[in-house]
């Protein structure tokens, strides 16, 4: 039997942060051997959040993300890396799915409620975004979607959409499930530990996050400024930790491949200053080699474009077959 199919993606909407790494990219690397992996750069999704983005900035950011995927260890000879907009089947299947997705289900999505609450004028793209995501996943007969905690609800919706389509039109789609890591599934903002670390907040609040490509001095400065509380020492009881301290221990656990409790045992009793030093050391030692590899990879645009073209061809082959199946089921 062929290996189970995996698909996941990141939006090229800004600099990738350490949350994207521990919630997504870091998990992906570990799946390369046992799964047939498709990793997408979801540039069509990025159009919903980067209001002023032009096609050219999105395209150049897509190359940034591709180089970062490879720098993180996603070897293009062992995974299919591609840009969403280069495989037009995504948009096409999305429409077919949109026609049977209940409006109420989309309006109930936590991410939509959060983002639409922040502004007066909301584009329809923000609402129907999870249907495009469902198309991304279903096109590849995906069984497992490795994502951070924030995406759980969207994967559930994808299952619902697929299940309903199969029930009405006959077996067409494979039902996917989310795989969320035990630690690092939801890294919080360093400036506000009640809010998820995100690319969009990173643009507005400079102390919000650490980029995967941040220099050592920036990493140390940002961690040193991370919000903690009025205490001095790390409590041994996890229940007693404030959100900021808990987040730092969670980051340490994720980067050092420990469970939360193991990481907490390691730092319990330390001063917050020492904790921050330990966390910064851990981030630096993982991200430094990524940064070095990235510089070389990003400099060779011809090679990046070759990787992406090759990926788009492989992805199209699968996507075309699935779209045809859906069209046939619908009788169009
Ligand atoms: P962002 O919200 O930063 O723009 P994306 O929507 O592009 O990120 O998500 C890319 C992947 O990174 C998804 O799998 C998402 O669940 C994961 N992710 C995003 N933010 C975090 C976070 N703060 N902690 C853990 N995983 C995250």
TrEMBL record:
Its EC number is 6.1.1.2. HAMAP family: Trp_tRNA_synth_B. It is found in: Cytoplasm. This is Tryptophan--tRNA ligase. A motif ('HIGH' region) lies at residues 12-20. GO terms for molecular function: tryptophan-tRNA ligase activity. The lineage of its organism: Bacteria, Bacillati, Actinomycetota, Actinomycetes, Micrococcales. ATP binds at residues 11-13, 19-20, 148-150, 187. The gene is trpS. Pfam families: tRNA-synt_1b. The keyword Lipid metabolism does not apply. PROSITE patterns: AA_TRNA_LIGASE_I. L-tryptophan binds at residue 136. Its main location: cytoplasm. It comes from Luethyella okanaganae. Homodimer.
